[in-house]
Every structure is written in C-alpha cells, then in structure tokens.
Design brief:
Blueprint: E1 6-10, H1 14-26, E2 30-34, H2 37-46, E3 51-55, H3 63-73, E4 78-83, H4 88-96, E5 101-104, H5 109-121, E6 125-128, H6 132-144, E7 149-152, H7 155-164, E8 169-173, H8 181-191, E9 196-201, H9 206-214, E10 219-222, H10 227-239
Parallel strand pairs: 1-2, 1-3, 3-4, 4-5, 6-7, 6-8, 8-9, 9-10
Helix pairs in contact: 2-3, 7-8
C-alpha cells in the first residue's frame, strides 16, 4: 500500500479506535492504530503517514500536543482532530497552528470518510483579491501556519485555476472589477460542487452579501480580519457535514 493511503488513527478508547480503523479500511486505506499520543509519536518515527486522525481528549499528550509533536517528526503532515468535548481553547490552538479540520462527535462514518478523502486530496486554498498585496499577505499567513495556499487577482483567473486543478477552499473578495465575487462564486460552483467559498469584504453592500450567502456561500468575513479567524472559517468549511 502506498504511503499516500496510510492513515494513523489515535484514540485511547479501543472500541472507537477499532471502529474507525475498520471503516477506513473498507474505504481502501491502510490503517495503523495508536493507543495514545506517545504511541503515535513512536509510530511516526518509524514510518510515514499521509494523514493522522486523532482524538483530542486523551491521557498524557492530548490531541493538539500530539499534533505539534507529529509535525516536528513529519513536517507538513495532515492532521484531522475529533472531539466530543467543548474544549474550545485547545481546538482554537490546533486550528491556528494548521490542523486541517475538526470533526465533532458523534459523527457518521460516511461523514468521516468524506473529510478524510478531502484532506488526502491535498488541494490548495485559493485566495482571490484584486489587490495583490492583500492577497499575498493572506497567502503568506496561511502558509506560515502550514496550509497550502496560493493567490490570483481576479475572478477569471480564479475560475481558470479551479478548472486546471481542484481547489479545496476559495477565499473570495466580493468587490472586484470586471467579474465581482458573486458572479465568480456562481462560476466556481458550476466548475465544482466540492469547492467551499468564503467571502471577504471591506465595503460590499448588504445586498451583495445577501446574494452570496443566499446562493450557498459558506461565510463572509469583514476586512480587516486576523489570519487565525480565516483559518477557523476554513476548518469549519472543510468539516461541516452540510457541505462535505
């Protein structure tokens, strides 16, 4: 089995771990199980993984601490966290440091399989803004946190990029010349139903924001915003069961 299909499942509950492993194996993945964070680190030192699926609340190292250590051993490793507890501080830290997505328990195995497949596809976040300095600053912030991201500067280029290579999440300015954000969004969704689109704006009129959200746009951030706020929106979009 290729490394690109090897998934490490980390959970201190044996029954949950076995259930996750069995379902992922049915999807064609090679699954390795770890009983806790320390065990996960031991395994990661011996073999490479394409993705880690880890519980957050565990004895010893919690899921976010495990994520940090795994990234030191295998930089760029994709990690999805699972949680059934309201431990928002930990979750916020993990997302801010580059966790791909967080799945909240209870979840269906179908939903889990979709998130895992999406994560393993390793598609980029596409930032679209007609001001290159703004777009590049956002991309730099996302890349610094370990996300794969790139920028284009108009709606036409965004549509072409989505056609050339599948895009995971698109962060799209609403007010742009030639082709505005709403029209770009409509074209992107025609290109692929899998693209999640997050709008951003500093001065878009309310009717434009309504047009975006009423057509299924995921969220709209008001400029200026912190990169961490955007990362939370991206993580939510990636794991929202209504969208996956």
């Amino acid at each position: 089995m290729q490394t690109t299909r090897r998934v490490l499942v980390v959970d201190d509950e044996e029954g949950m771990r076995a259930t996750l492993a069995a379902n992922l194996e049915l999807e064609g993945y090679e699954v390795v199980e770890a009983r806790d964070g320390a065990h996960a680190l031991e395994l990661a030192r011996r073999q490479r993984f394409a993705l880690v699926l880890s519980d957050v609340k565990m004895p010893g190292l919690n899921g976010v601490e495990t994520f940090r250590e795994l990234r030191r051993i295998q930089p760029g490793l994709t990690v999805v966290l699972m949680t059934g507890f309201a431990i928002e501080r930990l979750i916020e830290e993990g997302i801010g440091e580059g966790v791909y997505a967080v799945i909240y328990k209870p979840f269906s195995m179908e939903h889990l399989a979709r998130v895992v497949a999406r994560a393993l596809a390793s598609r980029p976040v596409l930032v679209v803004d007609d001001l290159p300095d703004v777009a590049e600053a956002i991309v730099a912030g996302l890349q610094a946190a370990g996300l794969r991201a790139e920028a284009v500067y108009d709606g036409y280029a965004a549509i072409q990029r989505a056609r050339d290579e599948a895009v995971d999440v698109c962060v799209l300015d609403l007010v742009m010349p030639a082709l505005d954000g709403v029209k770009t969004y409509e074209q992107l969704r025609r290109t692929s139903k899998q693209i999640r689109v997050i709008a951003m704006t500093g001065y878009a009129p309310p009717e434009m924001i309504h047009a975006f959200t009423s057509r299924g746009g995921y969220a709209c951030l008001r400029k200026p915003f912190e990169v961490r706020e955007l990362m939370h929106a991206i993580a939510r979009a990636r794991s929202d069961p209504r969208w996956c």
